[in-house]
Amino acid sequence: MKVFVTGATGFIGSAIVQELIKSGHQVLGLARSDAAAASIAATGADVHHGSLEDLESLRSGAATADGIIHTAFIHDFSNYAPAAETDRRAIETLGDAIAGSQRPLIVTSGTLLLQRQGPLATEQDAPTPSFPRKSEQAAAAMASRGVRVSVLRLPPSVHGDGDHGFVPALIKLARDKGVSAYVGDGLNRWPAVHRLDAAHLYRLALEKGSAGASYHAIGDEGVPFKDIAGVIGRRLRVPVVSKSPEQAAHHFGWLAHFVGVDCPASSKLTEEKLEWQPKQPGIIADLERGTYFEPEQTTQAARSYS
Q: Which has the closest alpha carbon to 260: 270, 268, 249?
């Protein structure tokens, strides 16, 4: 299968490209720069120049593919609503290019703010309407127009070597402020998944997924945030402290919107439907390996969110 991958040089997308090629698929990776093009070519994938804002590049890339995996997103939390709108337009463009063909489109979403109906968020729970990421709305609109689209939800922490997401940002914050903090009692839970397990699930969803389905990439169903802060504090040899909700806004900055959320999630239905089993280390074990605390890892995090 020839697969068009957006976000092909990203933390998760690059793992997906490798997973697809290893499994015998041909990959066409979206590249918005010469450096990205060189990185994609080095993996053995073909290069398609363009960007999320260049809708014609998305349309032409999708038109040549047997399936699409969409992971690209503009991670600018200071301008989140415009980034979500760009994502919506990109999904609609990709869907329009393959409408009626039964070619699969895998759209990326998240488990962070689902309307949880039970102890764990499940694949059957709906996203919170007020949350501005529009990927699931766009996917539903495409499904109503005959596109074979499914949604793959990622937890707030997708971890592994090269991570430049939430956890490296927390490590940098702890270094800068001299304490590793959590909110309240720190018992709010974060789900997590290793990037290689997530990449494997994207391939399974592409090959075996059902139209209209939602899938969860969950390795750890819910790790107490205090445990994450504790590893960071011990590794950096800084105090681990509690912050009140009022103090959290000042201490964590933009991260304050996320660090106090209790959002445990399950992937039980996904595991049953796609025969997927996470095999990589959990987030605490991954942190304990120590690579997260090497200077380059947190430097990437600073660049990603600057």
A: 249
